[in-house]
Amino acid sequence: MLNSLLAVEDAQVLAQAIVNTIHEPFIVLDADLRVVAASRSFYETFQVDPEHTRGCLLYALGDHQWDIPALRELLETIIPEHTAMDDFEVAHDFPGLGQRTMLLNARMVAYEHSPDRTILLAFTDITARRAIEREKAELLAKTEDLLRRNRTLLQEMQHRVANTLQIIASILLLKAKVVTSEESRLHLRDAHERVMSVAAVQSHLHATAGIEEIEVSSYLSQLCGGLAASMIAESQQISLEVTADEGVIGSAEAVSLGLIVTELVINALKYAFPVDRTDARVLVSYATDGPAWKLVVCDNGVGRTAADAPSATGGLGTVIVSALVKNLDAQLEVTSAEPGVCVTIAGSAVSAPTRRAA
């Protein structure tokens, strides 16, 4: 009998030592929700002393600071039905501590040779964690609001740029109609085409979903579709086709690429087919091989020699294309397509599109 009592005492000492070792606040309750044992961390955290804790009803501790409806629900309803509960969150204003958010983990322990029940209750203070989460949520909300405002401003700016370009193009066209000099008229119409070229690129960039990255295939297809609709008359039977590898490029490169394509396509549509043909075709292709990329604009028209510049006049169009090619750190080559002509622009490294994962 004496040995049995000593064994029980040793077990109680060991159990209390284990409880005190636990870093988080921890208490042991009997079936009547009275405190059997509490950890040192529990006393320190909630500023209560052992004499007024052990044997006391949990709800009466610390001037009834634990008489919390959510805690009652946990101990009197949830635990008896489920015997365990993890991460039960309780927010409460504790005397001496202030507003705190606690995660409660509870277990009901049943004994093989006794009808008694014991409830183990551990507390984790997540007040700081929840404060950080709220700060992050507020920061995220502010960031999203700022992004929405930036998108709205960007859209407004794009609309204004488009309207401004249309106004400039209209003024140039009106001026071309009233000047008496044929040379001036040609220069004004040429300038009008340049402005419309920039407007076409800008409008198709605006239509894309992304801002920093542009899908090459859909971008060139939409751009050439718009050029065909505005440049090819119903009486003309010219086919404008686009083939492009899947991938994305930066918006800055997309602007240069779009202006080059627009210049070369307009040039082909204006000069390659002086006589209507049923098989007239302009092909725009864009291909990649690792970091290398190649843009080719070919037609099956009347053709030119390899020494000719991309523009039939050798003027402003040539200067624009050459400058854009240099900006992309690429090389330009004009060759005979027999019939027709091909303009090839090849580059690599930073201008190559990024392939999207399947």
Supply the number of helical segments. 9
CATH architecture of the largest domain: 2-Layer Sandwich
Mean pLDDT: 80
- End-to-end Cα distance, whole Å, is 75 Å
Please describe the biggest sheet, giving its number of strands, its sense, and whether it closes into a barrel.
Answer: 5 strands, antiparallel
Backbone CA Rg: 39 Å
Q: How much strand?
A: 25-35%
**CATH class category of the largest domain:** Alpha Beta
CATH superfamily placement of the largest domain: Histidine kinase-like ATPase, C-terminal domain
Overall tally of structural domains: 3
Instruction: Summarize the amount of helix as a percent range.
Output: 40-55%
Low-pLDDT stretches are 1-8, 305-313
Instruction: Report the strand count.
Output: 12
Shape: rod-shaped
Q: What structural category arises from helix and sheet content?
A: alpha+beta
Write down the CATH topology of the largest domain: Heat Shock Protein 90
Account of the 3D structure:
- With 358 residues, the protein is of the alpha+beta class.
- It folds into 3 domains: 109 residues, Beta-Lactamase, CATH 3.30.450; 63 residues; 146 residues, 2-Layer Sandwich (Heat Shock Protein 90).
- The protein contains 9 helices and 12 strands.
- The strands form 3 sheets. A 5-stranded antiparallel β-sheet has the order 2-1-5-4-3, with helices on both faces. A 5-stranded mixed β-sheet has the order 7-9-10-12-11, with helices on one face. A two-stranded antiparallel ribbon has the order 6-8.
- A hairpin with a 3-residue loop joins strand 3 and strand 4.
- It is rod-shaped and about 110 Å long.
- It starts with a helix and ends in an 11-residue tail after the last strand.
